[in-house]
Design goal:
Distance between the termini: 92 Å
Pfam families: HATPase_c_4, SLFN_AlbA_2
Radius of gyration: 32 Å
Organism: Thermus thermophilus
Oligomer: single chain
Strand content: 15-25%
InterPro entries: RecG_C_sf, Schlafen_AlbA_2_dom, Schlafen_AlbA_2_dom_sf, WH-like_DNA-bd_sf, WH_DNA-bd_sf
Shape: elongated
CATH class of the largest domain: Alpha Beta
CATH architecture of the largest domain: 2-Layer Sandwich
Protein name: Schlafen AlbA-2 domain-containing protein
Number of domains: 4
Structural class: alpha+beta
Helix content: 25-40%
CATH topology of the largest domain: Heat Shock Protein 90
Number of strands: 21
């Protein structure tokens, strides 16, 4: 390494693979930082440099002295190559630290880990953070593997979002999105860069697993149409939307003054499912994402299961964990994902709002399938939900989950509803009690039921704001004499209507 190359490296500052340390650091702390670098991605540790990148000098240290100390303090697991770089401002030792195949501990019970900003320590036996494959630079990748047309597409997306990034020159824009890195002074694309703006040839050569296969099934057996897509993610999502929408049916419902569109598969829901598959898949796996489109369901399967700690039973409540942070961050800046990890919430809310079932997760040893169901449309239920939300000022997601679950099963106890809500029983009890007070649920014998709206009674009560004869109620509601008498007697028993007068002068009015 020349002095000019050293100055260029120092000017870029510290990152995941670069560390600056003064020469007076203790051998133990030096070993912790070097092991922390090895436990992540490996990299270069510059000894004799301030945190700001200013050369302080390391005249008093000999390379053999450094390597011997690191060898001893890491039980022989760390032996970096030490390069001496001298120039007008002093002498710097560059320790080239390889990535370690196994966790290196320093001292008793602690494993250091450098993440680019700080040194943290994990307990021995605790798994190291999973490396972000999408932040890596593939050895054969070069700047020519990026498609200028796809870079322009990214710029247009940012312009539509009103992002200040859209005003940056191409290289600065790509660096800001995390799609480029400097490797030994050369600008090269990250895996995330290839996935978002790579040419078709580059994807085929370097990332063939980026392919997504779409199948349309007229029946359960076999498929009637298939298309294999190997495109950068924005172009890929656009084509998948075209394929699904071409076979996506819509129904129109009128609720009050509003007209609702109820699709077999809501566009926001299936886009969220597709983006989740791309963000959370295991990009090291050579398997492709598969989308199977049936009339009654849409299945999206991706290699790799849930991140550690997340299961189908807690996916709605677990704090978000991203397997591929670099790709997720770029997609967030482009508006494809929410930083807060609210994609699952959005899918639940939109599905339940239109009377559909919540998403189903099928977990396999090396894959995950998300199923979006398309049951028969229950127009009355969708109208009830829309009217109730307007009347009550909107439902929370918890309300939608409980109402949707009880609609499917009829009745349920607290334990069962707590599982559906993915909440502790006490928290679920509070949600259900509030829903009782809102008139959405009723509880009988420890079991919860839906308090479905009595639309006929509501029409009658509105009519009886002024006293009416029975015959007037019959004509207004279009009911027989017997049905109207039954309705009026029930409303009188419930204390909502009273009868005034006798004989031909009998009138009914709302209490």
């Amino acid at each position: 390494m020349t002095w000019e190359e050293l100055e260029e490296r120092l000017a870029r500052g510290q990152d995941e693979r670069t560390l600056f340390l003064p020469q007076d650091i203790s051998p133990e702390d030096l070993a912790r930082y070097a092991a922390g670098l090895a436990n992540h991605k490996g990299g270069t540790l510059f000894l004799g440099v301030s945190p700001e990148g200013k050369v302080l000098g390391a005249q008093d240290l000999h390379p053999l002295q450094v390597t011997h100390a690191l060898f001893e303090l890491t039980q022989g697991l760390l032996l970096p190559y030490v390069e001496v770089v001298e120039g007008p401002w002093g002498r710097v030792l560059a320790l080239h630290v390889p990535q370690s195949p196994a966790a290196i501990a320093v001292g008793t019970g602690r494993v250091p880990f450098w993440d680019g900003r700080r040194l943290s320590e994990l307990k021995v036996g605790q798994s190291l953070p999973e490396p972000d494959f999408t932040a890596q630079v593939l050895p054969a990748a070069s700047l020519s593997d990026l498609d200028p047309v796809e870079v322009l597409r990214l710029r247009r997306i940012l312009e539509e979002r009103g992002s200040a990034l859209a005003a940056l020159p191409d290289l600065e824009l790509l660096f800001a999105l995390g799609l480029l890195e400097r490797v030994e002074g050369e600008v090269r694309p990250t895996v995330a860069g290839l996935l978002l703006a790579g040419t078709s040839l580059a994807l085929k050569r370097l990332l063939p697993q980026a392919e997504v296969s779409y199948y349309f099934h007229e029946a359960e057996e076999g498929y009637s149409f298939r298309e294999d897509l190997l495109k950068p993610i924005p172009a890929l999502l656009e084509r998948l939307k075209e394929l699904i929408q071409a076979r996506n049916r819509v129904r129109f419902l009128t609720v009050g003054l509003f007209r609702l569109e109820v699709w077999d598969f809501d566009q926001e829901v299936y886009r969220e499912a597709l983006v989740n598959a791309l963000v959370h898949r295991d990009w090291r796996s050579k398997d492709a994402i598969q989308v199977h489109h049936y009339r009654d369901r849409l299945e999206v399967s991706n290699p790799g299961g849930f991140p550690p700690g997340i299961t189908p039973e807690n996916v709605l409540r677990h704090p978000p964990k991203r397997r591929n942070p670099r790709l997720a961050e770029a997609l967030y800046r482009l508006g494809y994902v929410e930083r807060a990890g609210s994609g699952v919430d959005k899918m639940y809310r939109l599905l339940l709002k239109y009377g559909k079932e919540p998403p189903e997760y099928r977990l396999f040893p090396e894959a995950l399938t998300l199923v979006l169901y398309n049951p028969e449309l229950d127009e009355a239920f969708v109208r009830e939900i829309a009217e109730a939300q307007e009347r009550l000022g909107g439902f929370s997601l918890d309300h939608l989950i409980a109402v949707g679950y009880l609609r499917r099963v009829g009745e349920a106890g607290l334990e069962e509803l707590a599982r559906a809500l993915q909440l502790p029983e006490e928290a679920a009890r509070r949600v259900l009690s509030r829903m009782e007070r809102m008139g959405l649920l009723r509880k009988e014998g420890g079991r919860y039921h839906l308090a479905r709206r009595d639309l006929l009674a509501e029409r009658a009560l509105a009519l009886l704001e002024a006293p009416r004869r029975r015959q007037e109620v019959e004509r207004a509601l279009g009911l027989s004499r017997k049905r109207v008498l039954e309705l009026l007697r029930r409303l009188i028993r419930e204390g909502r209507v009273e009868r005034v007068g006798r004989g031909a002068a009998t009138r009914y009015r709302r209490r």
